[in-house]
Amino acid sequence: MPLVGGMLFASVIALAVVVPSAAMALALLSICYASLTFAAASVWSLPADVAPTPAHVGSIGGIQNFASNLAGVLGATTTGVLISATGRSYMAALGLSGAFAIVGALSYLLIVGRIEPLPARR
Q1: Interval 15-35: pLDDT, tens
Q2: Where are the domains of the chain?
Q3: pLDDT score for 15
Q4: Does residue 115 contact residue 50 with C-beta atoms inside 8 Å?
Q5: How far are the Cα atoms of 44, 46, 101, 116 from residue 58, in angstroms, in the given order?
Q6: In angstroms, what CA-CA distances link 77 with 22, 30, 87?
Q7: Helix H or strand E encompassing 9
Q8: 3-state secondary structure at position 102
Q9: Which helix (H) or strand (E) covers residue 7, if one does?
Q10: Alpha helices in 12-113 (DSSP H)
Q11: pTM, whole model, 2 decimals?
Q12: Do residues 39 and 101 touch, judged by C-beta distance below 8 A?
């Protein structure tokens, strides 16, 4: 639940471009970052929760870290392309970020299911 809740609250980033003041936008960006940090604590516990044996935790964590960093690179690139394509507007980029936060929350809620150790292969 902390992971799903954190991801859902992170979606407020999409509203940061439509609020009337910079202070409100900064508050929404802060809420988004705090929510993602809250969710990250749960994400980083997942390798230990799903590893079939303790020897697999590091490998699963490495795969997870690679995917996270790849998403970071693609996110920054996509943001730059969207800002360039829309005439220096952040609306599409932050809207997409908010939508991805909701999709991520729904994915953990509806697709991932019960978190339990994977079966060990012999």
Answers
A1: 999 999 999 999 999 999 999
A2: 2-112
A3: 97
A4: yes
A5: 11, 11, 26, 17
A6: 24, 22, 16
A7: helix 2-10
A8: helix
A9: helix 2-10
A10: 22-50, 57-85, 91-106
A11: 0.86
A12: no
Residue 86: both structure tokens together: 């829309």
47 CB contacts (<8 Å, ≥6 apart)?
A: 57, 58, 60, 61, 64
Q: What is the dihedral of CA 94, 95, 98, 100, to 10 degrees?
A: -100
**pLDDT digit string, tens, across residues 75-112:** 999 999 999 999 999 999 999 999 999 999 999 999 98
Residue 98: both structure tokens together: 């908010």
Q: Please, are residues 16 and 28 in contact by the beta-carbon 8 Å criterion?
A: yes
Burial class (CB in 10 A: 0-12, 13-18, 19+), 7: buried
- Site of tokens 């802060």: 30
* 6 within 8 A of 33, measured Cβ to Cβ: no
Token pair in block for residue 62: 């490495």
What count of other Cβ atoms lies within 10 Å of the Cβ of residue 120? 10
